[in-house]
Design goal:
The complex is a heterodimer of chains A (240) and B (464).
Chain A lengths: L2 H6 L26 E6 L17 E5 L12 H8 L3 E7 L2 E6 L4 H10 L7 E9 L8 E9 L4 E9 L5 E3 L8 H12 L2 E3 L29 E3 L2 E3 L10
Chain B lengths: L15 H4 L15 H11 L5 H5 E6 L11 E7 L2 E8 L7 H5 L4 H8 L7 H16 L10 H29 L3 H22 L8 E2 L2 E2 L7 H24 L2 H7 L7 H6 L5 H4 L7 H4 L20 H27 L19 E4 L2 E4 L1 H10 L1 H13 L6 E4 L2 E3 L2 E9 L7 E5 L1 H5 L3 H5 L4 H11 L3 H5 L1
Antiparallel strand pairs in B: 1-2, 2-3, 4-5, 6-7, 8-10, 9-10, 10-11
Helix pairs in contact in B: 5-6, 6-7, 7-8, 7-14, 7-19, 8-9, 9-14, 14-19, 15-16
Classes of the chains: A alpha+beta (240), B alpha+beta (464).
Chain lengths: 240, 464
């Protein structure tokens, strides 16, 4: 490496190839890492009780970062087919997630369904996720697509801000998502524009709020048992 | 009693303003009397000429109707006995399980999700456990879920598939008046539930398949019981075939009813026996095997009629295939005596096993002696794992399994904490029930019942 060391050690053996000489040894650049929350203390407890001395610890909550090409295997084929519509791609634990902007969702779904190299015949549904800490993209709609022809499964994730929770409905492309979209609306307040009848499906029609959002309390009452009182689950000591 | 919105008998749930349109400008609320009376009453209301309302009636069937397969509300628009439009009203069994899981540890989540689709609890547990295991990175490999746990999971799931299909066939038979099918179906299901009770301690709500393995080892004598059950089922299953397969009344009620072809199935996202009744051999156990299904010898059962009868035959044949898998799993378990059923990683595995005491099954006294008398560290570890739980790395996973009703998958999201950040279950009943309208519009009311029975929705899974 350096000239001084070269005197003592073997002449060529310690020479480390430079980045330019062997680009294959350079770690792939990772995508943007987004912090979407914070974890405080050693055990996640709030209020009193963290006597470990690590009560001031602040750790970011970070989800798997975007992956760079090549993705490997059939992932690249699907990514090629969707290419201009993709925001970013995350590969984690062998599952591929395509992040797609709301405006491109319907075009992407049509491609996924109709393109001969993609052929995702089945949409398994949409699941809403509420990330209160992901500022500007609090509400995520997560679709799972299945190609029976090629036996592939992908995930498509669309994020919208809490202040404007509108995204296009996929009902026209995949009629199967009808009830799934109604459920996501019911539970998260995601508004699927173009859905033929976006009404509540599980909760009563006049229910206030969207129960599975993180800012919606779980509810419950304290329960007395053998002289002790157990608070409702969301008020118990929590370690998360 | 026939009343219109113009009288004082206002229906608070269906005010006239909500339903007013060109065709129907009045709401009639009818509560149980002779049909002639209703029809003549409607005639009177329409100034004697009958009008639209005389022919066109909307009936709410359920949510407490005995043949709607649970608390399912069917909204049927009728013309005589013919259904012109059919819609479902669901949500009567919504229990907020997904929300509740966010306030419990990862292991406790099993206890909740097992209660969703109460006829196939092991599949709910399985897809959740697979999702958590994928996030933990312990799906397979030497440090992953042990082989014996995988075999026990397969064994329990296939037993569960039999019990679930039996209930489907039994209740489906009951709803069309074939009561013997119901009695023998529940008779055999009891045998499966007895096996569940022997292995897990409970007939339902087992919480037995947990992230990292299964809760307990097989009890002594379980394999003999299972082999006895398989031998008995091989005698009993032909009874269903003899009772139903060529029964002219049964066939007349089922054949051609609830028709849905392959295109319809894929557009509406239907999987499971409904999809296989179109002749397409799609089964996640074959196409994306989990728990070592690829090492078992079994066939995917299909039928080519796309109707209720085909779905009945698919289910009947699938029970035979399940018996084949159970036999193979039992043979493997016989060679695995004493092997671990929980992952070796002590940071994930529940620290104590239950043990048989003089008063039944309970805490293992050996374990209590260790943590209370011998090892302070073991006590701390036990306390931490039980109260706090283990942490799961941030990310999301979706590992679907082939439940008796189709693709059941848990979308599991972790933020790196000790609790699920979000657990969403893609329940096949929920999805498949969307096809009710397509299957039954244009048919008789009696065929609606058959069509729904052939979808086999379980409302606990639909509403969650």
């Amino acid at each position: 490496m350096t000239d001084e060391k070269k005197v003592d050690g073997p002449a060529e053996a310690v020479e480390q190839p430079a980045v330019e000489q062997s680009p294959e040894n350079v770690p792939a650049p990772t995508g943007e890492v987004r912090k979407i929350g914070e974890r405080h203390g050693m055990f996640g407890v709030t209020g009193t009780g963290d006597t470990s001395g690590y009560g001031g610890l602040v750790a970011p909550v970070v989800y798997p970062a975007a992956t760079e090409r090549p993705y490997g295997g059939w992932f690249d084929i699907v990514a090629d087919g969707l290419d201009p519509l993709i925001e970013s791609v995350v590969i984690h634990r062998g599952e591929i997630t395509f992040h797609i902007a709301p405006d491109n969702l319907v075009a992407a779904a049509k491609l996924l369904r109709d393109d001969p190299s993609l052929r995702f015949e089945l949409c398994a549904g949409v699941s809403g996720v509420h990330y209160p800490g992901d500022t500007g993209r609090e509400l995520h709609a997560v679709y799972s697509f299945l190609s029976m022809t090629y036996n592939r499964r992908i995930r498509v994730e669309v994020s919208v801000p809490d202040a404007d929770p509108h995204l296009p409905s996929l009902c026209g492309v995949y009629p199967a998502v009808d009830w799934h979209e109604r459920e996501a609306f019911d539970m998260f307040g995601l508004v699927f524009d173009g859905h033929p009848a976006l009404t509540r499906i599980l909760m009563p029609d006049d229910w206030p709020g969207h129960p599975q959002r993180k800012d919606y309390p779980l509810g419950g009452i304290p329960v007395e048992y053998k002289g002790g009182t157990i608070p409702p689950p969301d008020q118990r000591r929590s370690y998360s | 009693m026939v009343s219109t919105s113009s009288t004082s008998h206002e229906d608070v749930y269906a005010g006239s303003s909500e339903t007013r349109d060109a065709r129907a400008d009045r709401v009639f609320t009818v509560s149980g009397q002779d049909w002639d009376e209703i029809a003549s009453g409607l005639k009177d209301e329409n100034d004697g000429d009958g009008g639209d309302a005389y022919e066109r009636i909307v009936v709410n069937m359920g949510p407490q109707h005995p043949s709607t397969h649970g608390v399912l509300r069917l909204i049927l628009e009728l013309e005589g006995e013919t259904v012109t439009e059919a819609r479902c009203g669901i949500g009567y069994l919504h229990t907020g399980i997904e929300k509740n899981m966010e306030y419990r540890s990862w292991v406790q989540g099993t206890t909740f999700c097992t209660r969703m689709d109460y006829l196939s609890p092991f599949f709910n547990e399985m897809t959740y456990a697979l999702g958590v295991e994928r996030l933990l990175g312990i799906e397979d490999g030497p440090d992953g879920v042990p082989e014996k746990a995988q075999v026990m999971r397969v064994l329990l799931m296939e037993l569960n598939r039999i019990s679930s299909h039996l209930v489907c066939i039994a209740t489906g038979g009951m709803e069309i008046g074939a009561l013997t099918v119901m009695t023998i179906g529940f008779r055999e299901r009891e045998l499966v539930l007895d096996l569940f009770e022997l292995i897990t301690g409970l007939r339902m709500n087992h919480a037995f398949i947990r992230p990292g393995g299964v809760a307990q080892d097989l009890p002594v004598g379980a394999l003999e019981e299972i082999r006895g059950f398989v031998a008995l089922m091989k005698k009993r299953l032909p009874e269903y075939a003899a009772l139903c397969n060529a029964n002219p009344i049964f066939k007349a009620r089922l054949e051609g009813v609830g028709h849905l072809d392959l295109e319809g199935c894929l557009a509406l996202g239907l999987t499971g026996p409904v999809l296989r009744s179109t002749g397409y051999p799609w089964d996640l156990r074959k196409t994306s095997p989990y728990s070592g299904y690829e090492t078992y010898d079994f066939d995917v059962q299909t039928w080519d009629t796309s109707d209720s009868y085909g779905r009945f035959r698919v289910r009947l044949n699938e029970m035979w295939e399940s018996l084949k898998i159970i036999e193979q799993a039992a043979d493997r378990l016989a060679r695995m005596e004493g092997e671990p059923v929980m992952i070796a990683d002590k940071k994930i595995a529940w620290p104590s096993q239950l043990a048989i005491g003089s008063d039944g099954m309970g805490n293992s006294l050996d374990h209590i002696r260790t943590i209370m008398g011998e090892s302070m560290e073991a006590l701390i570890h036990h306390f931490k794992l039980v109260t706090e739980g283990f942490r799961v790395p941030p990310g999301q996973a979706y590992v679907p399994v082939e439940s008796p009703r189709g693709e059941l998958g848990a979308h599991v999201v972790s933020d790196g904490g000790t609790r699920p950040f979000r657990a969403h279950f893609r329940d096949p009943s929920f999805n498949n029930l969307q096809a009710m309208g397509v299957m039954s519009e244009g048919s008789m009311i009696a065929d609606v019942i058959v069509a729904i029975a052939s979808i086999d929705p379980v409302m606990g899974g639909v509403d969650r």
